[in-house]
Amino acid sequence: MAERVIGQSTEGADAVETPPHQPPRGATGWRRLDVPITYQLLTFVLFALAWQLYGTHRGGLLVPTFTETVVSLVDLLGRGEFWESMYISNQALVIGFVIAVSVGVPLGVLLGRFRTFERFTDVYLNILLVTPMAAIIPLLIMSVGFGLASRVILVTIFAIVLVIVSCRAGVRQIDPSLIEMARSYGASEAQVWRRILIPAAMPAIMTGIRLGLGRAVTGMVLVELLMVSLALGGLILEFRGMFQGGLLYATIVAILAEALILINIARWIERRATPWAQSATSTRSFQ
Amino acid sequence: MIELRGLSKTFVGRDGSTVEALKGVDLDVADGEFLTILGPSGCGKTTLLKTVAGLISWDSGEILINGSPVTGPGPDRAVVFQAFALMPWATVVENVAFGLQLRGVKKSEREERARKLIHTVGLEGFEKKRPGELSGGMQQRVGLARALAVDPQILLMDEPFGAVDEQTRRLLQEELLSIWEKTKLTVVFITHSMEEAVLLGDRVALMSARPGQIAEIVPVPLERPRSSDVHALERSKDYVEITAYLWDRLRDMHEEHRRETEAAAGGVA
Q1: Per-residue pLDDT tens for B46-73?
Q2: Given an 8 Å threshold on Cβ–Cβ distance, is B83 in contact with A175?
Q3: ipTM of the assembly?
Q4: Surface of B (91-150) touching A: CB under 8 A
Q5: Each residue's pLDDT tens digit, A181-207
Q6: Cis peptide leading into B160, omega within 30 of 0?
């Protein structure tokens, strides 16, 4: 701020005051990722080392060392069984997530805009927010059966709540003076939606989609572990049953890797789509 | 020509409490006039402006613009908002062109017009920036350019320079004066600063609070154009006298209001 004042006093009467901050022009691509990646690598090395030591000295049958896990992971990635499981699991994930987004986003936006509508639905949303979703799994099996449908439903229920809540908050936070401004220039209700409400809520919508994706992955694995021992969840149970610690850990690592990749893609899209937003939940450590 | 006849507006709170924001306001604004409305905070100045803008309804009385009654927002009026009301996702050009976009003006056409006005308000070079990258003063320049872009006859300004720092406010006041001297728009300008009201206005409408009424209209006999030598103007006898007079009146109103509230409180007890 000190710079600004000095700059202003020397510029004279008709000069335009300098903006509060200039975006870092040169800081693109690798430079942005530079610092966090260094730290992340360091913590990863420390973690792997600790794991290795623990596995070697106190591991026993069910806790493989880090290196054993890496070897098993390579082995796992070479198996057709693994990729088939990935395909089956992700089928439920993709369908469930798409439903969650295509229903959750419009619903959340409507709830945010029309308060009366919300009074009827608030209690159900709260139930979905606080209830441990695993509890409804038996209920799902009884009513829908063991097929794809019940897995999709669970993934949807897991993901949709955060999508709705985030979109609703996004619409509610819109500065009312923006709507008033649009009306003062003669905007119709449709124009207010298209030009103000949707773009203004976009950052929150994108955040909701990203958070929902994380929950969808959780739902995907959980349903296979607790409901139908199938696909990735099935693999975990199978390897545990056969005391194959290395493969068990490798499967979990593979799931973690997939989740991490998906979340990062979502975050990248979020930043691309809403570059003006400073989302509180996205890590922007470079600023 | 803007005519307000017996304009009244009462806000009712959720608990049933009422606030008389406007009570029987009569006011005429001539074409090409720069009218400033001065009053303590909460006196209903913003409510008054928003009714003229067609953004909020009123209870009784009427507003006529060139003889026809106001029923909603119209292309003859443009508002400059206190908190800028810029779209953070849109660039400066897109923000300035917004009013034209809503009216269905072609993209190339509206952006050309926007660029012209960005030049007028001294923001060339910032066309592709977003509001978040601009200082408060620059954001309000965008707000002003957006209002001018739709080519209104009446500019309604709601404490437009209230949210910027002192130095920037001075620059903006001078620039607004020189823009107004060129365009000869009718301006209704809300402010809580006596200096600003006198410096800019042809007349100052002094408002009192609760109920919101026009207490007095004070003509400002300062010469035009004023933009060329604001410093000399501020040292002139007329300027100092009017400012002092307004200050006295505001203080009286404040005292009166306090006595009334005390009396009311005493009456209840």
Answers
A1: 999 999 999 999 999 999 999 999 999 9
A2: yes
A3: 0.89
A4: 98-99, 101-103, 122-123, 126, 129-130, 132-135, 137-138, 141, 150
A5: 999 999 999 999 999 999 999 999 999
A6: no
Q: Residue written as tokens 């993901």?
A: A159
SS3 track for chain B? CEEEEEEEEEEECCCCCEEEEEEEEEEEECCCCEEEEECCCCCCHHHHHHHHHCCCCCCEEEEEECCEECCCCCCCEEEECCCCCCCCCCCHHHHHCHHHHHCCCCHHHHHHHHHHHHHHCCCCCCCCCCHHHCCHHHHHHHHHHHHHHCCCCEEEEECCCCCCCHHHHHHHHHHHHHHHHHHCCEEEEEECCHHHHHHHCCEEEEEECCCCEEEEEEECCCCCCCHHHHHHHHHCHHHHHHHHHHHHHHHHHHHHHHHHHHHHHHHHC
Q: Which domains does chain A have, with CATH numbers?
A: 65-273 (1.10.3720.10)
Q: How many CB pairs under 8 A join A and B?
A: 88
Q: Which helix (H) or strand (E) holds A27?
A: none
> How many residues are listed for chain A in this entry?
287
Chain centroid to Cα B217, Å, comes to 16
Q: How far is CA B87 from CA A24, A106, B156, in A?
A: 22, 22, 19
CA–CA distance, A113 with B238 (Å, rounded to integer) = 52
Spatial distance between the Cα atoms of B64 and B28, rounded to a whole number of angstroms: 10
Q: Which residue has the tokens 């103000």?
A: A196
Q: Check residue A135 and report its DSSP letter.
A: G
Partner residue facing A184 (CB), from B55, B122, B138: B55
Chain B hits for A21, CB-CB cut-off 8 Å, are: 133
Chain B closest-CA separation from residue A146 CA (Å):
46
Task: Sort out which chain A residues have CB atoms less than 8 A from B147's CB and list them.
Answer: none
Among A211, A254, A220, A205, smallest CA distance to A75 is for A254
Helices A231-241 & A245-273 angle (0-180, nearest 10):
150
Residues 6+ apart with CB under 8 A from A29: none
Name the residue with tokens 């400073």.
A278
- CATH number for region B33-41+68-76+152-268: 3.40.50
- Do B137 and A17 count as a contact with CB atoms less than 8 A apart? yes
* Side chain identity at residue A220, one-letter code: M
Question: How close is the nearest chain B Cα to the Cα of A171, in Å?
Answer: 14
The neighbour count for residue A42, using CB atoms within 10 Å, is: 10
pLDDT in tens, B37-51: 998 877 888 999 999
Q: Is B69 left (phi over 0), alpha (psi -120 to 50) or beta?
A: beta
A125 CA to chain B: closest CA distance, Å?
A: 27
Within an 8 Å CB–CB cutoff, is residue A187 touching chain B? yes
pLDDT one-digit tens code per residue, A111-141: 988 877 877 888 888 888 887 777 778 888 8
How many CB atoms neighbour CB B144 within 10 A? 26
**Cβ atoms B133, A21 nearer than 8 A:** yes
